[in-house]
């Protein structure tokens, strides 16, 4: 069990280091970095590389935002096999709707209990 925690920490940390380097060295904004990570996760899933990474690193690969891109493409490809072109759109929304809904609900609750700025 200890190696699983170790590799989750290392892979998740490497993803964070890449993000920090994009902020500090490349001077990318948080929005650009977020978009880049989502697209990178989508590309890695399209190439069939993200699933083995997630199996190896566990939460180190499934918690960062790269997993959102992975989930979008994975759902789209899965539904496209069954329902064709319409499945591409419905698959993306079907697989990611719970995560998006949870983010909206928790953001709303956070705004109720804390004083948001801006």
From TrEMBL:
Name assigned to this protein: Stage V sporulation protein AE
PANTHER family reported for this sequence: STAGE V SPORULATION PROTEIN AC-RELATED, STAGE V SPORULATION PROTEIN AEB
Keywords: Membrane, Transmembrane, Transmembrane helix
Organism field: Robertmurraya kyonggiensis
Transmembrane domains' residue ranges: 6-26, 33-50, 95-114
């Amino acid at each position: 069990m200890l190696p699983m925690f170790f590799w989750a920490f290392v892979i998740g940390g490497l993803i964070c280091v890449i993000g920090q380097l994009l902020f500090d060295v490349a001077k990318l904004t948080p929005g650009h970095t977020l978009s880049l990570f989502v697209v990178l996760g989508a590309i890695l899933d399209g190439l069939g590389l993200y699933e083995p990474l997630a199996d190896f690193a566990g939460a180190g690969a499934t918690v960062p935002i790269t997993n959102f891109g992975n989930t979008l493409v994975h759902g789209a490809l899965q539904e496209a096999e069954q329902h064709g072109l319409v499945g591409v759109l419905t698959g993306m929304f079907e697989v990611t709707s719970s995560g998006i809904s949870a983010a909206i609900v928790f953001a709303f609750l956070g705004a109720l209990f804390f004083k948001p700025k801006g």
